[in-house]
């Protein structure tokens, strides 16, 4: 995959507030990573794939009041933000779910860690001009071609009764198109780059589209024909998380940003940004790490 990175959009905010977030503690804990400058301002470089959303200006302003200067660093793909984080180009990112992070950990030497959860998004199937699955039999459905979203999309179609998996793949963590029993399925699959799913939808092809590209195409989330259930326990791998390097996991400023995320004003903006489809999740860091470790083991066992 060609990795692309947009020029960093620096959103600099300063304040004269007296609170010094991220100052070194006497025992040395929590003082790794970005530190306050001579003016008491701590700058955090935050990697995102949705820099245009309403939530960010609100979060940035609230961070400003606590002497935290947030610099949004936008990316247009799902691989580069982890690479940039591992290489120290950014301090934290917020764009991925746990199973995507697990795939990254299993296939690279990265040791990135989740430090807070945000929400779970349903993964829906859309078909332009249709309000039901009637007539979809015999169609070709577009799904994202990355392993995690692609596998999840296949599970969505399986649950809807549109495809059948081969016996040896019924419990697969992330089934692939080759795991589909085509003779006993109602639709065919075309796996395309995630950025193309909304484009083929616009051309009349049924498509499973994840949240970022759904919004960019202006698709109404309420027009989904079917989706998985974010509240179901099986959705744990798809909890979206804040991720950083292990040595910065206790940085006060970074962790304060993850707390500001739950501020009511930020959450209202998140709801508006997602068409009220996101389900907020609050899980302790330790629990997120346990889920991640389990997923990494499963990914490695299936590689």
From TrEMBL:
Alphabetical keyword list: Lipoprotein, Membrane, Palmitate, Signal
Protein name per its UniProtKB record:
Methionine ABC transporter substrate-binding protein
Q: Which organism is it from?
A: Corynebacterium mendelii
Q: Which Pfam families match?
A: Lipoprotein_9
Cited InterPro entries: Lipoprotein_NlpA (IPR004872)
Q: Does the keyword Cell cycle apply?
A: no
According to the UniProt record, one GO cellular component term is: membrane
- Give TM regions: none
Major place of residence: membrane
* Highest taxon of the lineage: Bacteria
Q: Which residues form the signal peptide?
A: 1-17
UniProt topology in membrane: Lipid-anchor
| Subcellular location field | Membrane
Is Endoplasmic reticulum among this UniProt entry's keywords?
Answer: no
Family per UniProt?
Belongs to the NlpA lipoprotein family.
């Amino acid at each position: 995959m060609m990795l692309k990175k947009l020029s960093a959009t620096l959103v600099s905010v300063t304040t004269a507030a007296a609170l010094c977030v991220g100052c070194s503690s006497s025992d040395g804990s929590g003082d790794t990573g970005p530190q306050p400058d001579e003016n008491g301002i701590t700058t955090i470089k935050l990697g995102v794939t949705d820099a245009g959303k309403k939530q960010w200006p609100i979060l940035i302003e609230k961070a400003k009041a606590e002497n935290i200067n947030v610099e949004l660093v936008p990316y247009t793909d799902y691989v580069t933000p982890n690479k940039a984080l591992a290489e120290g180009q950014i301090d934290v990112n917020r764009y991925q779910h746990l199973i995507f992070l697990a795939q990254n950990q299993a296939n690279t030497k990265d040791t990135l860690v989740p430090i807070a959860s945000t929400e779970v998004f349903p993964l829906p199937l859309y078909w332009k001009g249709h309000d039901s699955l009637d007539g979809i039999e015999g169609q070709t459905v577009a799904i994202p071609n990355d392993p995690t979203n692609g596998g999840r999309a296949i599970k969505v179609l399986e649950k809807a009764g549109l495809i059948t998996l081969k016996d040896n793949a019924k419990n697969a963590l992330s089934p692939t198109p080759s795991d589909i029993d085509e003779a006993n399925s109602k639709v065919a699959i075309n796996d395309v780059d995630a950025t193309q799913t909304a484009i083929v939808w616009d051309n009349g092809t049924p498509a499973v589209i994840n949240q970022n590209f759904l919004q960019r195409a202006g698709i109404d989330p309420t027009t989904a024909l079917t989706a998985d259930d974010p509240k179901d326990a099986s959705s744990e791998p798809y909890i979206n998380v804040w991720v950083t390097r292990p040595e910065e996991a206790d940085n006060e400023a970074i962790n304060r940003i993850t707390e500001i995320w739950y501020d009511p004003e930020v959450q209202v903006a998140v709801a508006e940004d997602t068409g009220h489809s996101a389900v907020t999740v609050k899980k302790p860091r330790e629990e997120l790490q346990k889920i991640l470790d389990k997923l990494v083991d499963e990914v490695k066992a299936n590689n």
